[in-house]
Amino acid sequence: MSEVRVGLLGLGTIGTGVARILIEQQALISRRLGRKVVLVAAADRDLARDRGLDLSAVRLSDDANDIVRADDIDLVVELIGGYEPARTFVATALEHGKHVVTANKALIAKHGEELFPLAAEKGLAVGFEAAVGGGIPCLKALREGCAANAIESVYGILNGTCNFILTKMENEGADYAEVLKEAQALGYAEADPTFDVEGIDTAHKLSILAAMAFGAKIRFDEVFTEGISRITPSDIASARELGYRIKLLGIAKPHGDQVEMRVHPTLVPHSSQMANVSDSYNAVMVSGDFVEHTLYFGRGAGERPTASAVVADIMDIARVHPHGVEHLPAPMGFVESERREMATMPVADISCEYYVRLMVRDEPGVIAAVTSILADQRISLEAIIQKERHATNSVPVVMLTHETREGNLQAAIARITALESVEDNALILRKEQFAA
After folding, report:
1. What's the pLDDT tens digit per position in 206-226?
2. The domain 3-135+303-338: what is its CATH number?
3. Which candidate, 65, 51, 268, 27, places its Cα nearest to that of 156?
4. Which of 39, 117, 139, 409 is the least crowded, having the fewest Cβ atoms under 10 Å away?
């Protein structure tokens, strides 16, 4: 039985999971493929740590170059994370004739447009299913299952940390800072949680999904991004009172030769399936002109789900190695020559409904002044709620708008917060409706 020889970069949580599957499930993998997939070597800076796994048959090194340049390795799995040195190691592996599988969404979002052509030039494959949605096969579904469709929209709850925090805040009425500490203690959030809670991780994943959905080049740096750190228990309570939950969503839609890409906390109807994705689970909703609405749900992170997706990519490549890589689907779902530059739609031009929370003085005429400014910008209100007075004599006012242009709303809020009776800390959340 012929072998495909694998080298692994990184023996952290996910890397250990991948090694465990390749070693413990080798017989099952061989039965599925008709050939062996063998973990030949692995590199990590800490080789002394006990990983609860027999690695005696694996050549271990503390230098990744021993893997990416080795003659006895056919496929390199990159699980280091981040931009560098991951990019350099992946490029070197490709230059040395090795296929690559990665779970690194930051790498694909930032450097995919450099790495995909290099792989194509060398006749090699790059697999990255685990980069979006962990163990959820959402990229495969978008690339292959929905291939006959013009994709109309992609919505995603793509960060388990943020979903965990928002779920806990809703269920327990707890403050953001309090729940963030709990998420860090449980290992859901890093010591520096910025990538997660400020939406950057979600933006990485959304840029990959959008490019794959619409045949576009990846433009991560142009994704409009807001995080969840300004959400308060009172916002969550107000949303619930109005029939909504707050979720951090990634949203992508095509508009002719432009693509709308945005990440932000979003009000979603209680009745929608997306509203009921809780705790650290992820979900991706893809809508196409023939398939209509599809939803992919599951664990978006963790050793076992993510490792499962990594090994699935290894197996896809192993089926065609060393000949026939051209029979694999194009990594981004479109042949390279047909992928196009698509301008990112300016956020000021998007249209949706909005939730606006203001802090105003409890005095006559304030609401009239606010609604007058909204009317000047051709913004109509669906609802307005005035909450109880705070000790500072300020009153929270919550407004829901009908659909309006973002640029109009931002212009109105700039004028409103310039009023002496309004504090300059307005919170704007966008609202989305779903067909499913």
Report:
1. 999 999 999 999 999 999 999
2. 3.40.50.720
3. 268
4. 117
